[in-house]
Amino acid sequence: MSTHPKILTAAQARAERDRLVAAGRRLVFTNGCFDILHRGHVSYLEFARAQGDALLVGVNSDASVKRNKGDLRPINPQEDRAWVLAALGAVDYVVVFDAKEPKELIAEIIPQVLVKGRDWAHYVSGREVVEAHGGTVVLADLVEGRSTTGTIERVLKAYGPEAAR
Predict the structure, then answer these.
(1) Residue 123's CB: how many other CB atoms inside 10 A?
(2) What residues pair up with 97 in beta bridges, in sequence order?
């Protein structure tokens, strides 16, 4: 992956978390595929950033997205997804992870705040790790009608095989 100052390894993210804690600041963590960035993502990331002093976004690797969403995904490669996220003002750091879920990454970094969308209220990966270290889990409301799947469906409807004729 090409170098971008906001894109960190897991070890660099842990070191940054330690630096923030020493300065009395709180690191927020959230994660996702962020395949085709849309308003819902941006609203969610702004909400997450407001929960602490710095936001670290875990991005599923290409292999991880395929395992979670099927062989046709991701649409955009992990390097592009990481760079786009790194360009957002609400995002302080990005780390790419290869696991199906971010629990091991969260255990390595130990953020003070873990944010996940309300649609994941039934299971927040890493919740027990964060809470065991005195941190909090915050659920974010979603922007109605905004999703990557919905965006893909609209593109296919507008530009699918029938539209090419």
Answers:
(1) 8
(2) 60
Nearest to residue 142, comparing CAs of 58, 43, 49?
Answer: 43
* Cα(45)–Cα(3) distance, integer angstroms: 22
Q: How far apart are CA 150 and CA 106, in angstroms?
A: 29
Using CA atoms of 120, 122, 126, 131 in order, give the dihedral in degrees to the nearest 10. Answer: 120
The enclosing domain of 86 has a CATH number of 3.40.50.620
Backbone angles phi, psi at 78, to 5 degrees: -60, -35
Q: Give the domain extent around 112.
A: 7-159
Tokens for 70, please give them.
């099927």
pLDDT digits (tens, 9 = 90+) for 78-91: 999 999 999 999 99
| Domain tally, the chain | 1
| 140 burial via Cβ count (<10 Å: 0-12, 13-18, 19+) | buried
Q: What is the pTM of this model?
A: 0.90
User: What does the pLDDT look like over 25-38, one tens digit per residue?
Assistant: 999 999 999 998 98
Tokens of 20: 């923030």
